[in-house]
Amino acid sequence: MPTTAFNPEKDMPDMSGKVILITGGTAGLGAETARRLAKQSPAHIYISGRNAAAADKVIQQIRQAGSKTVVTFLKCDLASLDSVRHAAERILTHESRLDILMCNAGIMAVPPGLTTDGYEIQFGTNHLGHALLIRKLLPLLETTAAAADVRIIILTSLGYKFARGMNFDEVRSVQEGTLGSWMRYGRSKLANLLYARELARHYPALTSVSLTPGVVNTGLVENLGLFNRAFVYLTTLGQVQKTEEGAYNQLWAVSAPKNSLQNGQFYEPVGVLSNKLSEAAKDANLARQLWEWTEDAIKAYL
């Protein structure tokens, strides 16, 4: 359950005029976040994903709830850098501002595989696809930040603790092994956390944070195989939240006063600055290596 009295019905400000992009906004936490934010009357919400039918359902739900906010489906496959590039360019073509970029989409403990570009599927989807999206949209985010409070919110997970470090020579392989799917997931989530910190260092005018929603009963868990699903539930007894509660931390990160957020830091539900980071998560040198490696990996798409 949420650990503070945060109530999105009462504690979220009016968001008139703001433009928001939520990756993975067609289902689960992303859809719940879009539905909640639409109640605050932003000018435009983009929900990205691969499933147009699922997006249409979310858009209809928002309209039926009485929101006048424009909601648009943005087709984007994070496992394809070319798809990410086209999605970002669509935003750059159609928008003169972007106030909130929420990197919500992700995959968890999936079987071994590679992205379209040959990267380990979880690392490529959860980190590299989002990194390219962020980098492509940075000029628009910076322009907006000249006169507005701009935030980049990256969802990670306490699963980052599965990773004791990061071997960049391995990210172009499937990395099989005992509990390999969780180790791969952990590396991708560690990358999310470290990348948010580096964004804050390189672009201090923007507010960039990482956060975990906690353990949430969404398709991300329910779509796992029997062993992995049991692993999640047995290791998180009494901690599983409903989807609407699971979205609280990212809604808090959108709506909390700017001066209450520490740029580049990691937050647990709800709005709790984490003081229990692993050694890898505190490794500034590893964060810099990740930034440099990522820049090189995506440079052809910028």
Automatic annotation (TrEMBL):
It comes from the Eukaryota. Transmembrane segments: none annotated. Coiled coil: none annotated. One of its GO terms (molecular function) is oxidoreductase activity. The keyword Oxidoreductase applies. SUPFAM superfamilies: NAD(P)-binding Rossmann-fold domains (SSF51735). InterPro entries: NAD(P)-bd_dom_sf (IPR036291), SDR_fam (IPR002347). Keywords: NADP, Oxidoreductase. The keyword Metal-binding does not apply. Belongs to the short-chain dehydrogenases/reductases (SDR) family. This is Oxidoreductase short-chain dehydrogenase/reductase family. It comes from Penicillium malachiteum.
